[in-house]
Design a protein that fits this description.
Largest sheet: 5 strands, mixed, barrel
Number of helices: 10
Order of helices and strands: EEEHEEHHHHHHHHH
Radius of gyration: 19 Å
Number of strands: 5
Strand content: 15-25%
Strand order of the largest sheet: 1-2-3-5-4
Structural class: alpha+beta
Oligomer: single chain
């Protein structure tokens, strides 16, 4: 199994890059979002990889972070979504955006990916909802600072209530989730205060 490849970015195409490692060029398929974050050709890169083995071929799919790779693995675990489908979804939605979309039942956002229809998007939401949570979506979008993460673990309930309240006010599910995750949670914060802070990010 190839966990990652480090080498010189030798070429970049529409959906694939070539990484030169000791004179051997590895072709790696990547999402549009990941491709847009790559350094110029000639730079050194480290790309986390997933090797897809078929009867007649082997394909490498690449990711700039371990989180991207883990989300990709969740996607291809959904019935009807293969590596190309997973890559298509991550081309239009970042891992955090996908988390928000799944938790918010945002079929429209997920089905905006090429080749992903409404029924497939609905199936994805059903199958991944138990593997993700609002806390996951919020936590991945905030700093890895230990103290803040501890606050997040105690603030999950009021965050959920705040999201529900914003939706009741007429805001979209995904929009509400994104606003709430931008608020810095304090140990004694109440839902009302969280709502006030979150509303500042709605405009």
């Amino acid at each position: 199994m190839i966990s990652y490849i480090r080498g010189e970015l030798a070429a970049q195409y529409e959906d694939k890059v070539i990484v030169d490692v000791g004179g051997v060029g590895y072709g790696i398929y990547m999402s549009a979002q990941s491709m847009s974050k790559l350094p110029p050709v000639g730079s050194e890169v480290k790309i986390h990889t997933y090797l897809n083995v078929k009867e007649d071929s082997m394909q490498l799919f690449g990711f700039l972070t371990v989180d991207d790779l883990n989300v990709f693995k969740l996607l291809i675990g959904v019935s009807g979504i293969g590596p190309k489908g997973g890559q298509a979804i991550l081309s239009v939605l970042s891992p955090d955006d996908l988390r928000f979309a799944v938790m918010a039942d945002d079929v429209k956002a997920i089905s905006s990916a090429p080749g992903i229809g409404k029924k497939t998007a609905q199936k994805l939401i059903v199958e991944l909802k138990d593997k993700l949570s609002i806390e996951d979506a919020l936590e991945h979008a905030i700093t890895e600072d230990g103290a803040l993460k501890a606050q997040m673990s105690t603030g999950g309930e009021i965050q959920s209530e705040a999201v529900q309240a914003l939706v009741a006010l007429g805001y979209g599910n995904t929009e509400a989730l994104k606003a709430v995750k931008q608020v810095e949670i304090t140990p004694d914060m109440q839902v009302e205060e969280l709502l006030k802070q979150a509303l500042k990010f709605m405009f």
